[in-house]
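Organic solvent tolerance-like N-terminal domain-containing protein structure dump, as promised
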Amino acid sequence: MKNAKILFSLVFTLMAATVFGQRQNQQQGEKVPVELQQADSLIGGNFNGQRIDKLIGNVVFKQKDGILYADSVYQYKEKNVLEAFGNVRINQADTVNITGNRATYNGDTRTARIIGNVVMKDPRMTLTTPSLDYNLNTRTATYTEGGVIVDPENRLESRMGTYNTKTKMLDFQQDVKVKTADYDIKAQNMKYNTLTKVVYFQGPTFIAGQQGDLYAEEGTYNTITKVSNFGRNAYILTKEYRLGGDKLFYDQNTGYGYAEKNVSLRSLKDDVTIRGQIGRYWRDRGEAKVYGRPVMETIMENDTLYLSADTLYSQEAKGARTASMIFAYPNVKIFKSDLQGKADSLSYNRTDSIMHMNVKPVLWNEQSQLVADTIHIQLRNETIDRMYMYSNAFIASEDTLRNYNQVKGRDMTAYFQNGDIKRVNVNGNGESLYFALEGDTTVTGMNKAICSDMVLKFGENKLKTISFLVQPDASFIPPHELEEGQKQLEGFAWLAELRPTKEQVLPKPAAAAPKPEPKKKAPAGKAKSAKKTAGGRKK
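structure tokens r here:
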């Protein structure tokens, strides 16, 4: 009995050692042989100094979870290499299936190169290519001679590519094209997940669609949800707008777009561009908003008009009887080389080319200041044609001696030519103060008049004459009789300090963060000495 126990103990010890050795060999990468499963016939021999087995007819080899099928196979046992010919098929784990005309399989590295009419299938997609390299260890396929991938939703092609059957990720390079139900995508580098159906951009990418085009240099597009997240110089291009930014989100289903950083919104119909830091776009509503010190730019009279506000909002016409509009609010500022202005809010009718300034609007044209409760500017051929000033209209202009010629009335209409005021009609409750000068150096007196309707004429950016359309109540006051209180009409205020400059209207570029100065290293001896001192000092 004692001997039997000793015998069983030895057997179990040997079995444990054997299992441990097998595991250790597998961990150390022990080569698993390529095993012949079947063949109709076998011809063996030495050819050119090496052992080759020729297997013919319904040949099947297996190694781990990989199986190779072919009409015939040359087996190089010393190299652990197979050359397969005719109706070649490689199957791995019953999920990946590759077919081709011929193949070379290395049993040591578990890699295969398949050539000729190659078709690779897994449950997610089908790949066709002239040649393919497949690694059964990493379950990765690579092609370099052009390939086409088709799944139930999309068709993808590129010059080169890699497909990982574990992660279901396709990596494309060179001449990448993706066709979905809604878009045609072109790029040089791209990734695609056959499981999630998400496209990843890695370089300049163009996406053409029926409802608009997209461009990005990095980002993602979900071909199922039709949601895009783009970066670097991205933009959406529709028939009406071009919305761009460093970051861009777009949902094709809802037609909603969101842009951040260096946002630009361009209206293609009238060449108006709005720039800012945050932009929102609603395709179906034909609406867009830009925030973050936005500025509108448009070309007028071969010059650029800049308009800024806290918010700029654009709305497209929704029918024949509606107009395309731009709304700016609050803190509106306008700058053009010959026209500046400010107001609390502004609306621009792009259909009729009329600009409405509301709530304390002020305009400056050269030496003239125009104020009213509401101001409407009529544009024609990209130039200011007329200006309508409603309620409490007031025009003041500064002469060479810093006197202020003033005209006020209920309403006024100003007529422009080449960007300069030429005539102003005053309608109702007209009053005027006009300083008479001799040689632009001496005041000879001041004309004061009250008249219901007047006509003012300007030349060389100065008030030249005032015509009274009905009998005025007028007086001329010589210089020595002028008192300070007589030099201003009621309601006069010279607002030069509010006149916007170009720098105030345009957003300031973001200042670059200062680079930290490199720390100077103390000499080794001093550093050690300081450390000892600090360590030994009691506080």
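The longest strand covers residues 420-438.
lmk if u need the other ones
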